[in-house]
Amino acid sequence: MTLKVYLSGEIHTDWREQIVEGAKGLDVAFDAPVTDHDASDDCGVRILGSEDQKFWHDHKGAKLNAIRTRKAIADADVVVVRFGEKYKQWNAAFDAGYASALGKSLIVLHGADHQHALKEVDAAALAVAEDPIQVVQMLRYVLSGALPD
After folding, report:
1. Does residue 88 register a pLDDT over 80?
2. Which of these, 129, 121, 128, 84, lies nearest to 101 by C-alpha position?
3. Which terminal CB of the chain, N or C, has fewer other CB atoms within 10 Å?
4. How far is 45 from 47, CA to CA, in rounded Å?
5. Is residue 91 part of a domain?
């Protein structure tokens, strides 16, 4: 069985690459949002035309990105949402809530310093990890029942 995994959340570290690399050999297909920050921010105005006001600039981009995100979350078996250190990821919290509302298996990934702030998000998750390798170990266990050495 191919497990479809959507990797949502912060784009400032290589956590996605760590998971993809660690999962080599597993029957997993990964999907993710556009992680090029400028492309993600500007997609709406680049495709649909410029806007004088930043609100409408962002609005166009957010809606266009939502088409991709909604489809990817809907198609996923497992949604992994990473909350990083650098910025508040409101979009990641939204993705976690959307995945939870759809009944998706949700894994939340964040450091210990975010435990209190994300307690409601964590409560909706089936697992909460602090390190990408733990996500890989979970995927391996789900697919094969194998525990880490």
Report:
1. no
2. 121
3. C
4. 5
5. yes
